[in-house]
Design brief:
By secondary structure, this protein is of the alpha+beta class. The protein has one domain. Helices cover about 55% and strands about 15% of the residues. It contains four helices and five strands, in the order αββααβββα. The protein has a three-stranded antiparallel beta sheet. The C terminus is likely disordered.
């Protein structure tokens, strides 16, 4: 079967989008009238936030801007999954990115905003006039996108050169 290499990234995609949507439905029901719920004191809390903008609290053009941008990026990610379907170390993180993108796109279609609920207080920082005392609230889709990007960066920086040299002189034949 020619499409067998696409099964694993597809399963990652479906799992991420599914768990993201289930967690958001659960948190909307659980946190709706509770406000902030401390899990590990001030460090980790559950807090229901509806985000009309983008990642890290950006607002570059409203909900439609982020919807259209997300759909375009999703198209590129799907293209790269198909183009690299025989390289699991690329397609698995791309599947996580695609699943996260779809999870947030579903929110924008369904609610006009993205549901966030994971609230961590890592470290404070100041960068170019931006002072952050508490990190931005996020969701499982955002986590999957971040982990997918980190996985791709690890592959690009540390593994792609060794994979290229391991495959020199070999020819892949598909039946």
């Amino acid at each position: 079967m020619h499409n067998r290499p696409l099964i694993l990234p597809f399963l990652v995609f479906v799992a991420v989008a599914g768990f993201d949507q289930l967690s958001k439905l659960w948190m909307i029901g659980y946190l709706d009238n509770r406000g902030t719920t401390q899990v590990l004191g001030q460090f980790f809390q559950l807090k229901l936030v509806f985000n009309r903008g983008g990642a890290l609290g950006t607002d570059l053009g409203g909900g439609w801007f982020y919807m259209i941008t997300s759909i375009l990026i999703l198209g590129f990610v799907i293209y790269f999954i198909i183009a690299n379907q025989n390289v699991k170390l690329i397609t698995i993180p791309l599947g996580a990115i695609a699943g996260g993108a779809v999870g947030n796109i579903i929110d924008r279609i369904r609610l006009g905003k993205v549901v966030d609920f994971l609230d961590f207080d890592f470290f404070d920082f100041d960068i170019m006039g931006l002072h952050v005392e508490r990190w931005w609230t996020f969701n499982l889709a955002d986590s999957a996108i971040t982990l997918g990007v980190i996985g791709l960066l690890i592959y690009i920086i540390f593994l792609s050169k060794s994979s290229e040299s391991d495959n020199q002189g070999t020819i892949e034949v598909n039946p």
